[in-house]
Amino acid sequence: MDPVTFTTEDGARLEGEIRLPDAPARGSAVLCHPHPRRGGSKDHPLLWAIRNELAAARGLAVLAFNFRGVMGSGGTYGGGRDELRDAVAAVTEIRRRVEADLPTLMVGWSFGASVAVRAAIDDRRVAALVLVGLPLRPGDLALPPLPDATDLRAMRRPVLLLAGEHDTFAPSDELRDYANAFPDGRAEIVAGTDHYFWRREREAAGVVGDFADEVLTRT
Description:
By secondary structure, the chain is α/β, with parallel strands linked by helices. The chain is 32% helix and 23% strand. β6 (126-132), α4 and β7 (159-164) form a beta-alpha-beta unit.
């Protein structure tokens, strides 16, 4: 694991870690973590499992980073808006470290999924998108609105939406409907778990890894 720092376009200095595969990279990935004000950081076990799966088993170079104001990252919490700059800067950083023509996946969980979907729609460098526990029902999290159906139709890249069967932030039926709004979207529901995938992290990571393999095969 290699520690890195990089800077956003508005001058926030962010911390992260890159895990490289043992062989030459087949592509790259950026991981976006849950809500900064609810204890979210790059170090959650689910994100560790996804990072390990994508790097060790699927051959991707993976950057996990902390949004602005989290742990050693500079700046202050941006309400889910300024964090778009963080995600874009993370894509720039990981693509600087691998061949530029290799595909880049963006993976977001919860708050990070909200950031990822809004960032990826406008960033053509993102070849595919994984949204874990996308907060369709954010409750009191006060997040910016998610893209509507018109915006989603413009996202003509592969999209996976993943959630636990009992995820109250991403109810299964609503998640499937949202996935169907993408031209190339699908939903996967993991039975018997919820938003946090406790003790099911490796299973969830395997679903993400299978999707990554499909993307890499198609590109």
